Automatic annotation (TrEMBL):
It is a multi-pass membrane protein. Keywords: Membrane, Sugar transport, Symport, Transmembrane, Transmembrane helix, Transport. This is Major facilitator superfamily (MFS) profile domain-containing protein. The keyword Ribosomal protein does not apply. CDD domains: MFS_STP (cd17361). It comes from Brassica napus. Residues 26-468 form the Major facilitator superfamily (MFS) profile domain. The lineage of its organism: Eukaryota, Viridiplantae, Streptophyta, Embryophyta, Tracheophyta. Pfam families: Sugar_tr. Belongs to the major facilitator superfamily. Sugar transporter (TC 2.A.1.1) family. It comes from the Eukaryota. It is found in: Membrane. NCBIfam families: SP (TIGR00879).
Length: 503
């Protein structure tokens, strides 16, 4: 997930500061923000395959599943209310992004986190106690609104609190906590599905209240960021806070830069209109295409529906949930590889290697539903793991990191909202249409995503310059020396306007 804030640093100055207890606490809060997002991504697929859940809320899906042995197995989960249960969350997140960005700016990051936490608690409780489909969907909407708030404020909070040296790692750290959330959800689904009486799904859905409470309480006890205080005119308070956070007294340089960044960003009257200027064409292109492509890899088909998918091709209930745990583990492990490699091997290498690996594995994932021989089932899971690993060290973290490091200050927050919105729109579309597509295209569906993976890899190869090790304020050079983008940015001085640093 991205940070949308503006954090100053001229690239040459070294601000003094230690990794204090305050900063460590911010990491924990960030982890909760990511965990809850991941938990919501991972929980719905497993829950929708639990028989007792289907019987209670989606009896037609249950009947089809039980009695209909004739018709196309790929269609047994094709139900609009069922997909709405999953996808409504992303639509809500998209809508609340706009309000959240205003609240975060005008009232501070803490209030935004608090609102997110409260909405999460309400959504989790409504889901856990649901007795009708509308309660499920309203619960998911509340969770989605919560995500709009926390995904806006938590990464921003982190970027502003962290000593600048740790900012890059923290950006992918947030993605790591998303993957841990997905994993926790699939492990819990596995165990809760075994509870006699069939009410385990209530624990799965209601369980989201635990990270939700932590983030709610966290937002009350954590300090506001100095950046946010400056933004709201509280300079003295901000300076005292900065000293405390960094654990040192000489924070003048950083303080000056924070004030300068805040002033500069206030001068930008029309960030949205700015974004349409010709010189920002490369940035706008990336802000739109990178998050869209990230979703068109098809990753959320696996994240949302892995158990459904595994059941469709003939796995038993248990095996399907277990396989989701396996892919969840691979997802976490490969994200760690990305943290290690992103500044060593570069973004382009990871994008291209990941793309190729996903392409190969998508052609490998093929299956005829029915009773699968065991070796065949293992091969399918293996290919899915290769695919998930590829995503988790390429498009997963880079889909957020690269946009956040290429935007110059004057368009940063506007461009970043474009990135977040595009991500949510495509997540919603994929969640909503996947089961329908599976029904009509069967495993041809993976060829459909493979096509996009091929297109996006060529796009990266041709159009994305390497940004590894380039100070953000010098990013304009990268476009200037690019064979294609140079025609848009050449000859203007926006590189010098650039003064911010954000991850
Ligand atoms: C994506 C999510 C996805 C997750 C999987 C994130 O970067 O934005 O849509 O579910 O990675 O780990």
């Amino acid at each position: 997930m991205p940070a949308v804030g503006i954090v100053i640093g001229d690239g040459n100055r070294e601000y003094p500061g230690k990794l204090t207890l305050y900063v460590t606490m911010t990491c924990i809060v960030a982890a909760m923000g990511g965990l809850i997002f991941g938990y919501d991504i991972g929980i719905s697929g497993g829950v929708t395959t639990m028989e007792s859940f289907q019987k209670e809320f989606f009896p037609s899906v249950y009947e089809k599943q039980k009695n209909d042995h004739e018709s196309n197995k790929y269609c047994k989960f094709d139900s609009i209310p069922l997909t709405l249960f999953t996808s409504s969350l992303y639509l809500a997140a998209l809508c609340s992004c706009v309000v959240a960005s205003y609240v975060t700016r005008a009232f501070g990051r803490k209030l935004s986190m608090l609102l997110g936490g409260v909405l999460f608690c309400a959504g989790a409780l409504l889901n856990g106690f649901a007795t009708a489909v509308w309660m499920l969907i309203v619960g998911r909407l509340l969770l989605g609104f919560g995500i709009g708030f926390t995904n806006q404020s938590v990464p921003l909070y982190l970027s502003e609190m962290a000593p600048y040296k740790y900012r890059g790692a923290l950006n992918i750290g947030f993605q790591l906590s998303i993957t841990i959330g997905i994993l926790v959800a699939s492990v819990l689904n596995f165990f809760f599905s075994k509870i006699p009486g069939g009410w385990g799904w209530r624990l799965s859905l209601g369980g989201a209240v635990v990270p939700a409470l932590i983030i709610t309480v966290g937002s009350l006890v954590l300090p506001d960021t100095p950046n946010s205080m400056i933004e709201r005119g509280r300079f003295k308070q901000a300076e005292t806070k900065l000293r405390k956070i960094r654990g040192v007294d000489n924070v003048e340089d950083e303080m000056d830069d924070l004030i300068a960044a805040s002033e500069a960003s206030k001068l930008v009257e029309h960030p949205w209109r700015n974004l349409l200027q010709r010189k920002y064409r490369p940035h706008l292109t990336m802000a739109i295409l990178i998050p869209s492509f990230q979703q068109l890899t098809g990753i959320n088909v696996i994240m949302f529906y892995a158990p459904v998918l595994f059941q469709t091709i003939g796995f038993g209930n248990d095996a399907a949930l277990m396989s989701a745990v396996v892919t969840g583990l691979v997802n976490v492990g490969a994200t760690v590889v990305s943290i290690y490699g992103v500044d060593k091997w570069g973004r382009r290498f990871l994008f291209l290697e990941g793309g190729l690996q996903m392409l190969i594995s998508q052609f490998g994932v093929d299956g005829n539903p029915g009773v699968l021989p065991k070796w065949y089932a293992i091969v399918v899971v293996l290919f899915i793991c290769i695919y998930v690993a590829a995503f988790a060290w390429s498009w997963g973290p880079l889909g957020w990191l690269v946009p956040s490091e290429i935007f110059p200050l004057e368009i940063r927050s506007a461009a970043q909202s474009v990135t977040v919105s595009m991500n949510m729109i495509f997540t919603f579309i994929i969640a909503q249409v996947f089961l329908m597509m599976l029904c009509h295209m069967k495993f041809g569906l993976f060829i459909f995503f493979a096509f996009f993976v091929a297109v996006m890899s060529v796009f990266i190869y041709v159009f994305l310059p390497e940004t590894r090790g380039v100070p953000i304020e010098e990013m304009n050079q990268v476009w200037r020396s690019h064979w294609y983008w140079s025609r848009f940015v050449d000859g203007d001085e926006n590189g010098r306007v650039e003064m911010g640093k954000v991850h």
